[in-house]
Amino acid sequence: MMKIQVKSVHFHADSKLLAFIEEKISRLNRYFEHTLEAEVHLKLQDTGARVREKIAEIRLKVPGSVLVYKKSGKTFEVAVHAAADNLKRQLVQFKERRNRS
Q1: What is the number of structural domains in the chain?
Q2: Which of 24, 69, 80, 98 is most open to solvent, judged by the fewest CB atoms within 10 Å of its CB?
């Protein structure tokens, strides 16, 4: 079971968003079973427009390394989805490099 920690900066994340993040991040265990911990930082970026950019930064702590990816989007769901997809690729590459060693 992966430990997932969500930190929202200057706003309160609702339970629906937290459940979405939990589901997305926990799926990453399929690609690398030794993932220890995930940290998700959610931030609002003021671009001067009425709609502020949503930023999701995900840090995956794996044995001997930390994989990080930061993505922004119109919604947190879009940003988290894109970041999780990128981290999936990073995990697969990390696993392949580790298995070659």
Answers
A1: 1
A2: 98
pLDDT (tens place) for every residue of the chain, 101 residues total: 789 999 999 889 999 999 999 999 999 999 888 878 999 999 998 777 777 899 999 999 999 899 999 999 999 999 999 999 999 999 999 999 988 87
Range of the domain at 63: 3-100
CATH number of the CATH domain containing 25? 3.30.160.100
8 A C-beta contact, residue 7 and residue 64: no
- Edge-to-edge, what's the strand order for the sheet holding 3-8? 3-8, 37-45, 53-62, 65-73
How many other CB atoms are there within 10 angstroms of residue 9's CB atom?
9
* Tokens at 72, concatenated: 């922004």
The DSSP secondary-structure symbol of 3 reads: E
CB 55 within 8 A of CB 74: no
Reduce the DSSP state of residue 83 to 3 states and report it: helix
